[in-house]
Amino acid sequence: MPELRHRFSTEGQVFTGEVPSGLEGFLVESLAYGLLQACSIEGPPVPVRSLVQDPHPVFERLSLLELNLGLYDAAYRSLLNGARLIAVDLDCSPAVQRAALARELYVAFCRSQRAAELEWPGCENPRAHSRYFARCLLMPALWVKQVRERCGSVREMSLFFDVSTHMMADRLRELGLEYPE
Q: pTM of the prediction?
């Protein structure tokens, strides 16, 4: 299924983002929700670093390496011995590290045996949907709707979810929600 660009308008703001279409979008969002459920995460902020340090069994042999990468905020690699690694750049802000870890967690899933067994769509290019997965994992739609009612600004919401204001604004727009006053 090809990836589509969807346009949402919220109070004059236009979001043109990478949102997987149809079944792929549903599956990516369902994977994020399923991971939250499997790890008993009930509210923000999602402890994404812990999801990599103490991974769910589907992420077999996954570990975290924290260092100064210089070129990337995070990177996923499969090693020759079968181990799998997500490296994150410690020079990046915590919000950027969290988003990068969430993106690379999706890449790790797409490269897993379980994804192969499921014939997971999009595994040949997991980065195409990794940003969407990160937004779904760090800011599930239901949580965003609940938090939006209590927060007075996008900045306040981004602090609550521990993400960048840009990422928070993107999530609001893709969900078709107006910014808080």
A: 0.85
